[in-house]
Amino acid sequence: MKGFPWWTEEQLAFEKKVNAFVEEVIPLDQETRWKRKFPREIFKRISEQGFTGAGVPKAYGGLGLGATGACIAAEAISRMPGPGRVFVGNMLGGLRQIIELGTEEQKKYFLPLLTKGEIGAIAITEPYAGTDAAAMEMTARPGETGYILNGKKRFIVSAGVASRYMVYARTSTSPEDRKNFRHLTAFIVEKGAPGFSVEMINEVIGFENIQNGVLDFHDVHVPTTHVIGNEGDGWQVMTGGLNFERTLISAQTLGWLRELLGNVVPFTQRRVQFGQPTSSLVNNQFKIADLITTYKTARLLTYYTAYAWDLGWDTSLESNIAKLYNCEGVMNASLDAIQVMGGDGLTPFYPLSAIMKVAKVENIAGGTMEACRLVIHRMGLRQLADQLKMPRRIIHEELGVPVVTNQVPEKQATVDADGLLKVLAEDYRVNPGLHMSREDLKAFFDVADESLDGVLLGLESRGLVKLHRDRKGIALAKATYEGLNRAFPAEHYRWFPEWVEAENIF
Ligand SMILES: Cc1cc2nc3c(=O)[nH]c(=O)nc-3n(C[C@H](O)[C@H](O)[C@H](O)COP(=O)(O)OP(=O)(O)OC[C@H]3O[C@@H](n4cnc5c(N)ncnc54)[C@H](O)[C@@H]3O)c2cc1C
User: pTM score, two decimals?
Assistant: First the structure.
């Protein structure tokens, strides 16, 4: 696979190495999957190669290849969906959180363990808190030398096999802290802690040989050395970790897309129907073209996001876009690939149906597609704010139609009812059907909010203006029919294109 121009020599060489390794162990993965055995042996071999340290800085025993290296390994290893999941889960068990917020002691203790391949897990979700993670109920109360955790976590990948669990719990019941997202704290809990147990292992599609389960914490003591960040920082630690998780999941989908392509293309070249290989049917070619497009675009998105991580940029928007695009993309691609292969695509003798299942899982796990869209909407509006300003429009003197202008209106130092009504009525001509925002009105009147509101309320009481209110108060305004008539004579609003014959209007 070709690397990207911004990859370092080390990253390029790493890609070759990890891909060659995967070619070697894929047969073993198939065997493990059919036998429904946890892929411990493969994971051990992955760790022996040092791949588990791809994203760990060299100073702590890792390969120092950054988020890009972690994604390169996740892509290649995820051609084997089971080991890929454990590999990614290991990093989710605190890699980013420890690198960014851990103390020097925590880095020296946890990062070498992670590199060595001691399996890690992430524990956010609870029976009564899924997408609404801030509503989690697990408590952490101060103990003599740390905190005491009580509660349950569910849907946890590698539950039971993992040694290290990145756990979030409530340390405050104050409504003020809850409002400001200061009610959570992040902890690392190690296997063997008294009171910490596996309550149940789920049967989940796509998890045929990977454990996924419910964890129970009953008066589990966590020493202060295992608190990541400060008390109350949990939400920030968690959202940063989730962005990294979404980048890694995006990389996983690349491995799945590769497997889909690598199976479907050679298959269609060898399957003959109506006297020709099915690869020559245009409907199959179109689906394969879509698959290639999804793979190449998903790859670009993922490695751009990983590069942004490595540059230290804020990737909140990009990591959510990558997860959304890649996970929906691989879901659709797996259905298309099965369609192209016909009945054989549905048998477990090819990996297509297994990929369809893991793809569906990733439309939910690590943040649902809806959760990603919510973040993209919020962050996108913020990031693109400069480009999302309402264009100013006026009526063109000669043409008589609304056109965009860069003329700034002359601001009036005071505001009165007639002037304000005229501005609203003129806006009916240039932006028909729209209300004016407070910001729009303040482009015409250089006055305090209270003065503007006072005049608007007066006009509203006279039935000349209609107001729309939000949580903060008056948000939007428009002139009513009576208001329009009061502001200008009916003639002011009339306009017809020249081609319209006079006899056809009245
Ligand atoms: C196989 C698997 C592995 C997982 N692994 C882990 C793990 O290792 N660690 C971990 O902590 N968690 C894990 N999870 C949990 C996963 O993150 C949650 O399942 C996910 O966040 C959704 O929560 P939920 O299932 O409770 O769905 P709910 O939150 O109940 O949501 C149900 C539906 O409503 C939608 N919805 C909810 N709120 C909104 C909203 N405000 N606006 C619009 N739509 C909304 C959702 O998008 C979804 O479609 C895993 C889940 C699965 C299935």
Answer: 0.93
